[in-house]
UniProtKB/TrEMBL annotation:
Substrate binds at residues 152, 282, 319, 405. GO terms for biological process: biotin biosynthetic process. It is an enzyme of class 2 (transferase). The gene is bioA. This is Adenosylmethionine-8-amino-7-oxononanoate aminotransferase. PROSITE patterns: AA_TRANSFER_CLASS_3. Pathway: Cofactor biosynthesis; biotin biosynthesis; 7,8-diaminononanoate from 8-amino-7-oxononanoate (SAM route): step 1/1. Pfam families: Aminotran_3. One of its GO terms (cellular component) is cytoplasm. Homodimer. InterPro entries: Aminotrans_3, Aminotrans_3_PPA_site, BioA, PyrdxlP-dep_Trfase, PyrdxlP-dep_Trfase_major, PyrdxlP-dep_Trfase_small. HAMAP family: BioA (MF_00834).
Length: 439
């Protein structure tokens, strides 16, 4: 029995995996990852794979970067954990300053405060609660959220409610927040004028329900888990204007798009639009430790400050045991520092362009519906739909030494931002060969 087979048997006996149908999973021959370095993963049998999806879209500098490792080790030697409730600590303060300095600038408020959470979903959850409480503390309670069709914002109850996947709502419907779905500006089913349709839908929705809406939540420029649905910057400008006109907040969920992934530090920069709340996660620590954050505008923070004569405390009653864990903050600080020193965001833009070129022959193949890309966020939609085609392409790519993961019929390509030219060639060649074998 190979080492992988033995570990898979032990896994089947004791593990419950996320988003996984366990009746069939082990039959899919999962990879048992053992170690990683740079853009490479090795399984327990010593087989090497290029990490084509950045270990679920997190890896920026590659695995095992010596400076990030050293920063975590140094922090561990100094302070492992100390609560952020009633005390503070230096890495938490420094990271907040760094994030505020990096925050997007443009049409909208300045983002001046940072609230920490543990993963993307919990950052979204915090942002939703902030938005609702903001409405109660600045006028009157607005219980509704506007969300896009096909959106994905995570799995906690609030985050799943503002998602646009019926499949993820079905089992929990009685527990979900009240939301209003509007057409996605990236939805190909809505044709070439999809952005105009989405703008019209959002405008009509806000005209009809605006006084009930506390926030509009959007993944700016690219709806990732929806299948890499890119959209026009015009949609974001409209969302900003409509939120302002109706007194609602605008939330940009940059958990997937943030930290250089789209070739800019924030996807918001492609549109020059600044939201009132911005969530980030995934790449913030470069994939080393779990951390996420909500960047908030000063006017939002100010609504949570108590005033003489208040009848309610105005406090944001929210936080976790590991909020702003110092090791996670140290990892994020090191990741952001190295990214700055090595101009990784500009490198990501160049890598994205290179991958775009390399994938042109793939885009022209029969069975490839479309290649969609913004920076290094790439989706290769394959057909026939609904036949596990995307999954089969990823399995075939694995045999060529590249690890990929599909979103339904869309094969995701999201490598570490520092991927070298030879590795980019390997990735594109493997995908090309895998598609030929499967389609
Ligand atoms: N928001 C977006 C845009 C995401 O893509 C994701 C995860 O893919 C999340 C939120 C949830 O993040 P996490 O899986 O870290 O909870």
């Amino acid at each position: 029995m190979s080492a992988s087979a033995s570990w898979i048997a032990r896994d089947a006996a004791a593990v419950w995996h996320p988003f996984t149908q366990h009746a069939t999973w082990t039959g899919d021959d999962p990879t048992v990852v053992d170690r990683a370095e740079g853009p490479w993963l090795w399984d327990v049998d010593g087989r090497r794979y290029l990490d084509g999806v950045s270990s679920l879209w997190t890896t920026t500098l590659g695995h095992g970067h010596p400076e990030v490792n050293a920063a975590i080790a140094a922090q561990l030697a100094k302070l492992d954990h100390s609560t952020f409730l009633g005390t503070t600590h230096t890495p938490g303060i420094e990271l907040s300053e760094a994030l505020v300095a990096l925050a997007p600038r443009g049409d909208g408020p300045e983002l001046t405060k940072v609230f920490y959470a543990g993963d993307g979903s919990s950052a979204v959850e915090a942002a939703l609660k902030i938005a609702y409480q903001y409405s109660t503390q600045t006028g009157r309670a607005r219980p509704k959220f506007v969300r896009l069709d096909h959106a994905y914002h995570g799995d906690t109850l609030g985050a799943v409610a503002v998602g646009g996947h019926e499949l993820f709502h079905e089992a929990y419907r009685p527990l979900l927040l009240e939301t209003i779905g509007v057409a996605s500006p990236g939805d190909r089913a809505n044709g070439a004028d999809r952005c105009a349709r989405a703008v019209a839908d959002l405008t009509a929705t806000m005209d009809a329900h605006g006084d009930q809406v506390c926030a509009i939540i959007v993944e700016p420029m690219m709806q990732g888990a929806a299948g890499m649905l890119d959209h026009d910057a015009h949609f974001l400008r409209t969302a900003r204007a409509l939120a302002d006109a109706h007194g609602a907040l605008l939330i940009f969920d940059e958990v997937a798009t943030g930290i250089g992934r789209t070739g800019r530090m924030w996807a918001a920069e492609h549109a020059g639009v600044v939201p009132d709340l911005l969530t980030c996660g995934k790449g913030i620590t470069g994939g080393y430790l779990p951390l996420s954050a909500v960047l908030a505008a000063e006017h939002v923070f100010a609504a949570f400050l108590s005033r003489p004569g208040d009848t309610s405390p105005r406090t944001f009653f929210h936080g976790h045991t590991y909020t702003a864990n110092p090791l996670c903050c140290a990892a994020a600080l090191a990741n952001l520092r190295v990214m700055g020193e090595q101009d990784v965001v500009a490198r990501a833009a160049r890598l994205g362009d290179r991958l775009g070129k390399l994938l042109e022959p793939v885009a022209a193949k029969d069975g490839v519906v479309e290649v969609r890309r913004l920076g290094t966020m790439i989706g290769v939609e394959v057909a026939p739909a609904g036949d596990r085609t995307g999954f089969r392409v990823c399995q075939a790519a694995r045999a060529h030494g590249v690890w990929l993961r599909p979103l339904g019929d869309t094969v995701v390509v999201m490598p570490p931002l520092t991927l070298g030219d030879d590795e980019a060639d390997l990735l594109a060649d493997a995908l090309d060969a895998a598609i030929d074998e499967v389609l």
